[in-house]
Each structure stands twice: as C-alpha cells, then as structure tokens.
C-alpha cells in the first residue's frame, strides 16, 4: 500500500499530454491501485506500478518532436479515449501469467506516444494547408495550459489571395517584433531560413513584391 501511495504522488507531479485530459487522474488512480491484482508473479507489480507512475514524464521523453508538444483538445480527447479503452480492456481480464501485464502496458504506452505524435503533426499540416496566417487553439503538453499555434499556409488559389496572405504576414511580423523579447514566443514558421529576409533590418524597405519573392524561395 505504501508503494502504491508513493507511486500515486509521483504521478501527480508529472506532466504530459495525456495528463492534461480531465479523466486522467481518476483513470490512472484506478489503474495504479488495482495493479496488484493483475499478475500471478509478484515481480510484475512494482514494474507495472513504475510504468504507470512514470507514464506522463516518459511520454514527454519519447515524443522526440522538432516542434512544441501542443495538441488540440479534440485530438487529446481522441487519444485519451483510445488509451482508456485499451487499458480498461486489459484490466477486465483476470490475473495474467508472469511478464504479460507489464508487456501489455508497454505496448499501450508506445501506441499512445505514436497517437500523440501523429495528432500534433497532423494539426500542423492542416494548419499549413490554409492561405496565409492561421491560428488554432491547443493545450501545452508541458504544463497543461491553454496555448495556440500560429502558422503560415501557402495554399492560396489566386494571386489576389496570395497578395492578401503576404500582407497579413507582414502585419503579423511587424506586430510580433514590437512585442517584449522576454514574453513573446516565436512561431515555428518564423524559424525557417527562408524568412531571414523578413527580419527587422529588412522590414523598413521591404515591398510586397520582395516579400512575396522571399516566401516563394523556401
């Protein structure tokens, strides 16, 4: 019991994408406190308990994303429901033979990591399919706070749409550069080498034509 209590406290301090879901605490509290009923071999209990207690922080370690771990609420719900369904099915069974239960937990964990990776990347791709500046609301997997992602999409259907998109981008960049360096966040698309021509030294004399040429050279 002391071991399970310790594991529960450790999990409460962790952060990760699934941890941001409203049912996470209740679900994983149940999983941790019933882990001792799932294996014939006593050695499986601490191993499985550790997997569950470190679930969130291990998720963050395994994501390996080149972009911030920010997920939409809709996709977080989809991932969470998929994980809970798998876990509930696993817990519906009787006691398992030695080694089976922790191996199944690892498999669910790996599948969850892939689901989160795909969800975050798919949202970024969908964002870039727009024309011009686009923003969507997300949750930060690091601290579970509300966040948002800003991207610039090249999917414009006419020269007029493209011109409007570039004008919107220039307004956004000018506004962004005026923000406090210590509090502003840099959108991922502004880190691209193709945007060096839109940095502050070039903005004063930048024409719409030059900006358009800069963007189409990415």
**In sequence order, what are the helices and strands, one letter per element?**
HHHHEHHEEHHH
- Low-confidence parts, pLDDT < 50 over ≥5 residues? 1-14
- What does the radius of gyration come to? 23 Å
Total DSSP E strands: 3
How much β-strand is present in the residues? 5-15%
**How widely separated are the two ends?**
58 Å
Mean pLDDT over the full residue set: 82
Classification by helices and strands:
mainly alpha
In spatial order, strands of the major sheet run 1-2-3
Q: Give me the number of helical elements.
A: 9
- State the share of residues found in helices, binned by percent: 55-70%
Oligomer: single chain
The geometry reads as: elongated
For the report, how would you describe the main beta sheet? 3 strands, antiparallel
Overall structural domain count: 2
Signal peptide: 1-16
Protein name: Izumo sperm-egg fusion protein 4 isoform X1
Organism: Acinonyx jubatus
Keywords: Signal
Tell me what the structure shows.
The chain has helices at 2-13, 24-33, 44-53, 55-63, 73-92, 100-128, 159-177, 200-203, 208-215, and strands at residues 70-71, 131-140, 146-154. The protein is mainly alpha-helical and 218 residues long. It folds into two domains: 2-126, no CATH class; 156-218, no CATH class. The chain has a three-stranded antiparallel beta sheet. Strand 2 and strand 3 form a beta hairpin. Helix 3 packs parallel to helix 6 (100-128).
Any descriptors?
mainly alpha; 218 residues; 2 domains; 3-stranded antiparallel beta sheet; 3 strands; IZUMO; elongated; Izumo_fusion
């Amino acid at each position: 019991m002391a071991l399970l209590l310790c594991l529960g406290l450790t999990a409460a301090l962790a952060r990760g994408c699934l941890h941001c879901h409203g049912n996470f605490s209740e679900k994983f509290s149940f999983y941790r406190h019933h882990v001792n009923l799932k294996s014939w071999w006593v050695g499986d209990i601490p191993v499985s308990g550790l997997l569950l207690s470190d679930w969130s922080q291990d998720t963050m370690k395994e994501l390996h994303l080149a972009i911030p771990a920010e997920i939409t609420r809709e996709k977080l719900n989809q991932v969470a429901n998929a994980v809970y369904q798998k876990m509930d099915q696993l817990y519906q069974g009787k006691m398992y033979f030695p080694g089976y239960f922790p191996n199944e937990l690892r498999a669910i964990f790996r599948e969850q990591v892939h689901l989160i990776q795909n969800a975050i990347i798919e949202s970024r791709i969908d964002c870039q399919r727009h024309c011009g500046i686009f923003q969507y609301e997300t949750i930060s997997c690091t601290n579970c706070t509300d966040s948002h992602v800003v991207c610039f999409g090249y999917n414009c259907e006419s020269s007029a749409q493209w011109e409007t998109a570039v004008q919107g981008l220039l307004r956004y960049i000018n506004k962004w550069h005026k923000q406090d360096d210590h509090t502003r966040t840099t959108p991922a698309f502004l880190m691209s080498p193709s945007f060096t021509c839109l940095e502050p030294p070039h903005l004063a004399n930048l024409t719409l034509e030059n900006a358009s040429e800069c963007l189409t050279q990415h």
